[in-house]
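Section 5: illustrative case.
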C-alpha cells in the first residue's frame, strides 16, 4: 500500500465514521432503497444467501462462503461488526477488499451519497454506506453469489432490500431488546422478515416461541422450511486435536468424517446450518410450494416438509471445505503457556455457548476471564453465565466508545463473583497482564502440588492448568487479537 493510498483510506474511513453509528437505529428502508436505486440496484445482479439470528451469524456466513468457494463459485461476503478494520466487512473470493479497492468503491458511490443525504430528512448512516459499498463491490467483481449478514434484526435491516434465495436464521435469544422487542417472539417476528416468497428458510435450533413466528412467516410467503434437528443436523460429534470431528445429515445426504477446526457444539450446529444452506442454494432442494399450517411442527417435533434433492454435494469437497473453515475471534487460541483464548461473546446466550465449549475443550482448567462489554448489554446476565466457569474476572474496557467503564463493570461483577474474585484494570493490555499473572500463580501452585507425582499424573495435571479467556464483545476480541498477535481479522 502506497503512502497516498494509506492517507486516502484514512480519510475515507474518517468520512464514513463521521456518520450516524450503526448502533443508532432509525428503522427505515427508504434511504437505502433510494441509494441502491441510484446505483442501479446492484444487489439484484447476483443471487443472495441472507443470514440473521442472535448468535453465530458471522461464523455461519464464513462457513457458507468456504463451502461455496470449494464448489468453484466466486463469492461476496458481507459481515458485521468488524474485528479491526472496516474493510473486513466486505470480502470478495474470501479476501477483504484491498485498500485501493475500498477507496475506489467509496469514490464511485460518494456523489450518490450526497444526493440521498440532501433528499432525505435523515442522513445515511455508517452502516447504510457500507451496505451500499458491499452491494456495488459484489456487482463489479462480479460474484456468482453474495452471502449477506444482517446488521441487526431483519425486517428493517438495510440489507433486507436484497431478496435471499436462501434465508438462514441462527438461534434466536434476547439481545438489542430496545430495538427489536423484549421477548423472543417479538425478536423472531422481526428477524423473520428476511424470509422472502419462494425462498428456502434454513432454521437453526430455535426456542418454541421463535420457531412459531418463523414458521408463520414462511407459511405466509410460501417459503420452504428446513429445520435443524428435523430436516438436517449433526448426527455425531467428537473432540479432535485442534477442533472436532463431525457427521452431518444434510438435506441431500449424509456427510461423515468432517474435521472442523473450531471448538464447541454451537460451531458444529453452525456448520450444519451452513451445509444445509449451500445444499438448498445448489438447486437440488426445495419444493416450490413451501409450507402451510406448519406452525406447530417445530414445537411438537412433528414431521414438517422435507426438501427434496437429486444428489448430495461431493463428499470430498465438503471435507476439504470443513477443514479450511475459520472464524477469527471466536474461541480462537492466540497464545500458549498460558493458553489465551479470545472470543466475541456479547450476550448471555453467547456467553453460555462459550463457557460450555471451554469446559468441553479444556476440561477442569482454571479460567481467568478478562471482560470488556458494551454498557447497553445485559451485563449481569452475561456475568451470571460466566461465573460458574471462571475462577476470577478482570474488568476492563475496549476501544469502543460504548464500552462500560471498568469500575462500573467491576461493581456489577462483585455482586455475581464476590469481591475476592474481581480485579480491575482500566486498559485492556493491563488487564491481560493481570490475568496472565493470575494464571501463572495458579500454574506455579499446581507445579508445587505435582512435585513428586509420576510422569503420567503430572502430565495430566499440567494439561488442565489455566486458560485466560478474553471476551465480552467483538471489539474486545479484535483488540486483544491485535495486541497479542498483530493480526487483523
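Designed sequence:
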Amino acid at each position: 500500500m502506497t503512502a497516498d493510498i494509506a492517507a486516502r483510506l484514512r480519510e475515507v474511513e474518517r468520512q464514513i465514521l463521521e456518520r450516524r453509528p450503526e448502533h443508532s437505529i432509525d428503522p427505515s428502508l427508504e434511504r437505502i432503497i433510494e441509494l441502491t436505486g441510484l446505483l442501479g440496484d446492484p444487489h439484484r445482479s447476483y443471487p443472495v444467501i441472507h443470514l440473521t439470528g442472535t448468535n453465530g451469524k458471522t461464523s455461519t456466513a464464513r462457513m457458507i462462503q468456504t463451502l461455496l468457494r470449494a464448489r468453484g463459485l466466486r463469492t461476496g461476503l458481507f459481515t458485521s461488526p468488524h474485528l479491526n478494520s472496516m474493510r473486513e466487512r466486505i470480502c470478495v473470493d474470501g479476501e477483504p477488499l484491498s485498500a485501493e479497492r475500498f477507496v475506489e468503491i467509496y469514490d464511485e458511490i460518494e456523489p450518490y451519497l450526497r444526493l440521498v443525504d440532501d433528499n432525505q430528512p435523515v442522513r445515511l448512516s455508517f452502516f447504510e454506506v457500507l451496505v451500499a459499498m458491499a452491494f456495488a463491490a459484489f456487482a463489479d467483481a462480479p460474484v456468482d453469489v453474495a452471502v449477506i449478514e444482517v446488521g441487526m434484526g431483519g425486517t428493517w435491516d438495510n440489507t433486507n432490500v436484497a431478496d435471499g434465495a436462501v434465508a438462514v436464521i441462527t438461534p434466536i435469544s434476547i439481545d438489542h431488546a430496545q430495538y427489536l422487542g423484549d421477548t423472543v417472539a417479538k425478536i423472531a417476528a422481526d428477524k423473520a422478515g428476511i424470509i422472502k416468497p419462494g425462498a428456502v428458510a434454513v432454521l437453526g435450533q430455535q426456542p418454541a416461541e421463535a420457531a412459531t413466528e418463523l414458521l408463520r412467516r414462511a407459511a405466509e410467503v410460501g417459503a420452504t422450511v428446513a429445520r435443524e434437528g428435523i430436516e438436517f443436523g449433526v448426527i455425531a460429534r467428537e473432540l479432535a486435536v485442534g477442533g472436532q470431528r463431525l457427521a452431518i445429515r444434510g438435506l441431500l445426504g449424509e456427510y461423515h468424517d468432517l474435521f472442523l477446526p473450531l471448538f464447541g457444539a454451537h460451531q458444529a450446529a453452525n456448520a450444519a446450518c451452513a451445509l444445509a444452506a449451500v445444499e438448498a442454494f445448489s438447486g437440488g432442494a426445495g419444493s416450490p410450494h413451501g409450507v402451510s399450517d406448519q406452525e406447530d411442527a417445530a414445537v411438537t417435533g412433528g414431521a414438517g416438509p422435507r426438501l427434496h434433492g437429486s444428489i448430495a454435494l461431493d463428499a470430498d469437497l465438503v471435507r476439504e471445505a470443513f477443514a479450511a473453515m475459520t472464524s477469527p475471534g471466536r474461541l480462537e487460541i492466540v497464545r500458549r503457556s498460558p493458553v489465551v483464548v479470545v472470543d466475541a461473546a456479547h450476550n448471555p446466550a453467547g456467553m453460555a455457548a462459550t463457557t460450555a465449549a471451554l469446559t468441553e475443550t479444556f476440561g477442569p482448567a482454571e479460567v481467568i476471564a478478562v471482560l470488556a462489554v458494551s454498557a447497553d448489554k445485559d451485563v449481569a446476565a452475561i456475568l451470571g453465565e460466566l461465573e460458574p466457569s471462571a475462577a476470577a474476572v478482570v474488568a476492563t474496557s475496549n476501544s469502543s466508545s460504548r464500552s462500560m467503564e471498568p469500575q462500573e463493570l467491576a461493581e456489577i461483577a462483585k455482586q455475581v463473583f464476590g469481591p475476592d474474585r474481581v480485579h480491575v484494570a482500566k486498559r485492556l493490555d493491563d488487564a491481560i497482564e493481570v490475568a496472565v499473572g493470575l494464571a501463572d500463580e495458579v500454574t506455579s501452585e499446581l507445579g508445587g502440588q505435582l512435585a513428586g507425582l509420576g510422569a503420567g499424573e503430572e502430565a495430566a495435571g499440567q494439561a488442565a492448568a489455566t486458560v485466560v479467556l478474553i471476551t465480552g464483545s467483538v471489539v474486545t476480541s479484535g483488540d486483544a487479537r491485535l495486541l497479542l498477535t498483530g493480526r487483523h481479522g
